[in-house]
């Protein structure tokens, strides 16, 4: 009986231990791995700290206020009306109108930005 082994043709510039450590980091649910601003560095972000930081910003009433109700549908309607008007006035061509009009209907509201009392 002959056994055939298929070797992955991809070569890694990491040692076995470095590759294993990277996989452990990627699989850690308590952190996020993000590219830094220019994309040349990876930053490890603690999810709990990031959520607390975001909540601190959202709780700052000088910069943010809670909405009485979600406004995504109304905003989508206004954006679509603006896109149609710009297309009608020949400011946008057909391709740009189509590209700008691609959005899910209704628009998704990111859970992170939704106050807990509006999630129920």
Describe the structure.
- This protein is mostly helical.
- 41% of the residues lie in helices and 8% in strands.
- The protein is built from four helices and two strands, in the order αββααα.
- The protein has a two-stranded antiparallel sheet with strand order 1-2.
- Strand 1 and strand 2 form a beta hairpin.
- The radius of gyration is 23 Å and the shape is flat.
- The model has no long low-confidence stretch (mean pLDDT 80).
Succession of helices and strands: HEEHHH
Q: Work out the helix count.
A: 4
Let me know the number of strands.
2
Overall mean pLDDT: 80
Question: What does the overall shape look like?
Answer: flat
- Enumerate the spans where pLDDT stays under 50 for 5 or more consecutive residues: none
Strand order of the biggest β-sheet: 1-2
Strand content: 5-15%
Rg, nearest Å: 23 Å
Let me know the largest β-sheet. Answer: 2 strands, antiparallel
- What is the total number of structural domains? 2
Q: In whole angstroms, how far apart are the ends?
A: 61 Å
As a percent range, the share of helical residues equals: 40-55%
Helix/strand-derived category reads mainly alpha
Topology:
Blueprint: H1 16-27, E1 31-35, E2 42-46, H2 47-59, H3 72-88, H4 94-100
Antiparallel strand pairs: 1-2
How would you describe this structure in keywords?
120 residues, mainly alpha, two-stranded antiparallel sheet, 4 helices, 41% helix
What's this model, at a glance?
By secondary structure, the protein is mainly alpha-helical. The protein has helices at residues 16-27, 47-59, 72-88, 94-100; strands at 31-35, 42-46. It folds into two domains: 15-65, no CATH class; 69-115.
């Amino acid at each position: 009986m002959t056994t055939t082994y298929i070797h992955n043709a991809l070569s890694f510039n990491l040692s076995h231990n470095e590759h294993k450590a990277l996989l452990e980091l990627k699989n850690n649910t308590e952190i996020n791995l993000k590219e830094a601003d220019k994309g040349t560095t990876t930053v490890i972000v603690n999810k709990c700290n990031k959520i607390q930081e975001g909540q601190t910003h959202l709780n700052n009433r000088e910069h943010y206020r809670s909405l009485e109700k979600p406004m995504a549908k109304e905003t989508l309607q206004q954006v679509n009306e603006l896109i149609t008007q710009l297309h009608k006035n020949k400011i946008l061509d057909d391709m740009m109108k189509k590209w700008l009009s691609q959005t899910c209907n209704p628009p998704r509201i990111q859970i992170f930005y939704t106050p807990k009392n509006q999630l129920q």
